[in-house]
Write a structure and sequence with these properties.
409 residues; Glycosyltransferase; 3-stranded antiparallel β-sheet
Length: 409
């Protein structure tokens, strides 16, 4: 009972914070307008519109296509000042831009994005192994063990592609690949509803540990497969994990800390998954819409995402979904808060994109026509190192803002 009262009190407190911010943030922006010249306003935060989002997406699409290697994977990080590549790599973040291109292809199908997505799938197929029981795992080059998040985000890319490409010559093979990856993800599920973080390349055996990122990514992949591709066998595991993850990453985490790191890293993936569940029509699924809204009050009012100095495009993937849930629910206070946060935060991040007309002072001072940089998004207001996943997350947020805030007429 004590835990229930604590959780209920927290939800009420976060709701109050959200209502206050609806009032406070517009006043804060008005004060900024009075204090700074017009040129500085444009440089610090652009005014979002459908046209600006379309331009940003076109630039980001070009960046992702230009940075895909012949093998199908991507340039991980590129410094547009020194024109040098980073020597680092990350298998999960390599799957991310492939998912972004699949999302862009579903929004705006074209031969260029189709070819790029298929090339990416071919890369991961070449570095995958089917186990005797039909499960399929990714064996990423130059790595010692597999990461569950890689399989989850690759599955998300396959799901989005197969939602728009029905009956294509490659669809049967891609569907078979996806089925194997989903079987593997399900085998990573633990008794507590979370998922093992790593697996052995030899036989796909689960390895100890969990990850708040990977749990959210896996929950989203399984939720979308159940909703859009007829994987009804995943519904019960999804609902079980969704409930247990909320308890672990939200309720329990907030009892330990006001601003827990694991809630921040679970936030956008969990919110996106809860959106899929809440809008699925499944029985008793409405509570997950409430969860997504509560988590977003925390992200804005407690975690204070609008004051962060690094790129927070990932957060707006979640905020956009929560905005749509609040709109559908008729929660006008939350709807206004989330809309204002997106306008302010995504408006600022748009000025961090190379080649955008509303670029910030740093980008205007370091203008470049380098095709490997154009359309890329910086990870900070003055950081010339363009990391592929930063642009991936922001382009997904842009897609969602176009869909929910500025739908096509």
């Amino acid at each position: 009972m004590a835990k229930q009262r604590s959780s209920a009190a927290l939800i009420v407190a976060l709701s109050i914070v959200g209502v206050l911010l609806v009032v406070i943030r517009p006043l804060h922006r008005e004060a900024q307008v009075l204090e700074h010249p017009a040129e500085e306003q444009v440089a610090s935060a652009a005014v979002l519109s459908r046209a600006l989002l379309d331009e940003s997406l076109a630039l980001g699409r070009g960046y992702l296509l230009a940075n895909q290697k012949e093998e199908g994977n991507f340039n991980y990080e590129y410094d547009f000042l020194t024109r040098a590549y980073s020597t680092g790599d990350n298998q999960v973040r390599q799957a991310g831009p492939l998912w972004a291109l699949a999302l862009i292809h579903r929004d705006q199908p074209s031969p260029e994005t189709r070819d790029a997505v298929l090339k990416g799938f071919a890369f991961f197929r070449a570095h995958s192994k089917e186990l005797p029981d039909g499960r399929r795992i990714v064996i990423y080059p130059h790595s010692k063990y597999g990461e569950t998040g890689t399989v989850s985000i690759l599955s998300l890319a396959l799901i989005e592609f197969l939602r728009v490409e029905t009956g294509c010559p490659e669809c049967a093979d891609l569907t078979e690949d996806l089925d194997g990856y989903l079987k593997f993800l399900l085998s990573q599920k633990r008794k507590d509803g979370q998922y093992y973080e790593h697996y052995a390349y030899k036989d796909g055996a689960s390895m100890d540990g969990t990850s708040s990122y990977f749990d959210g990514e896996t929950l989203l992949a399984l939720s979308k497969a159940a909703r859009y591709l007829g994987h009804d066998e995943l519904k019960d595991p999804v609902l079980d994990s969704a409930k247990r993850m909320y308890h672990h990453y939200v309720t329990e985490a907030l009892q330990e800390s006001q601003d827990p790191a694991i809630l921040k890293s679970f936030y956008q993936w969990g919110t996106m998954a809860y959106y899929e569940i809440a809008t699925s029509g499944w029985e008793d699924a409405d509570v997950y819409g409430d969860h997504a809204i509560e988590m977003t009050h925390w992200m804005i009012g407690v975690h204070d995402v609008l004051e962060r100095t690094f790129n927070t495009g990932y957060a707006f993937e979640g905020i956009m979904h929560a905005y749509e849930l609040a709109r559908r629910k008729g929660d006008t206070d939350a709807e206004a808060l989330f809309r204002d946060a997106a306008q302010e935060g995504l408006g600022k991040l748009t000025t961090w994109q190379v080649g955008i007309p509303v670029a910030n002072d740093y980008l205007r001072a370091h203008s470049t026509d380098d095709p490997l940089a154009r359309g890329g998004v910086m990870n900070a207001a003055d950081n010339p190192k363009l990391r592929i996943d930063v642009t991936q997350h922001q382009m997904h947020a842009v897609l969602l803002a176009r869909e929910f805030l500025y739908p096509a007429p």
